[in-house]
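Hi everyone,

Forwarding the result from last night's run.
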Amino acid sequence: MTWWNDDDVDDELDDDDWDETDIRVRPNPKANRPRTKRRPAHTDAVIGRVLGVDRGRYTVMLGEGTPDEREVLTTRARELRRDPIVTGDRARVVGDTTGDPGSLARIVGIEERTTLLRRSADDTDQVERVIVANADQMLLVVAAADPEPRPRLVDRYLIAALDAGIRPLMVVTKTDLADPTAFLSHFEGVGLDVFRSAQTQIPLESIGRALVGHTTVFVGHSGVGKSTLVNALVPAAHRATGHVNEVTGRGRHTSSSTISLRYESPEGTGWVIDTPGIRSFGLGHVDPDNILRAYGDLADVAAECPRGCTHLPDAPDCAIADAVAEGRLGASGPARLDSLQRLLTTFR
């Protein structure tokens, strides 16, 4: 038997036998790539108007008002997965922006919004549901009868509009079925422009003039004739219309999505945003101070109120109430104060 020690082994091995430089390691690009939060600048992105949203796909108009105007179908970039993209948004789009059948572009950013109309599930819910972006007018569609008008729901629409800095308008439909005068008296102090519409006579020209140059979101309870009005203003809209249930007195939801439609007339163009009928409108997100700011003359007087003044009928030493009682706010002062207090009470 032959014996040897470690020194003998070392003598027999060449130094190159211990060299590991020739070992090949399979590259892993993902593991070796340095982590970064930098995103592409997308300097080639084009900006367009979001016309509608349908199951994770967004229809965007590019080249608005130019000979190259076209609609493209888009998806959202992964980095925007937590950000709401809604009708009316101004989106930054990259990829295949030709609009050809089968093409799909990508939204990589949203331009700063001028307004944001929101609602919550109820008044205690702080989670916002974004309805539309960049609208500067809200047209409330209310029926004089069938279904009966709901003043408190209209109050909630008004509060949401005033909070968002959106000018409210109103159309009362079916005035041939009932006189809306008593209903409209609730809103004398708000300064609403009101259009009365009968089933056989819709004031399309007057309403149309109010739409030119604006982006107007149409809202209303189901069954009030909102989709019928939209179809009359934009004949190519083809929005589904329904009827009122004779047993419950409620309208059936017909418009299932929010969509932007271009209004065109000899006087000019505008944008109509039609929304599904809404039976409830939570105000958990609203700042009460925005309601008061919408009443400019009353807000100026409110600066003289004691700290924490609610401006409600039971508020002590309310400067607005004193100014109205003394006639300093003119003949419309009592109606405007009543309107403000009603809206604040609804929010409360």
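The domain at 46-110 is CATH 2.40.50.140 (OB fold (Dihydrolipoamide Acetyltransferase, E2P)).

Cheers,
N.
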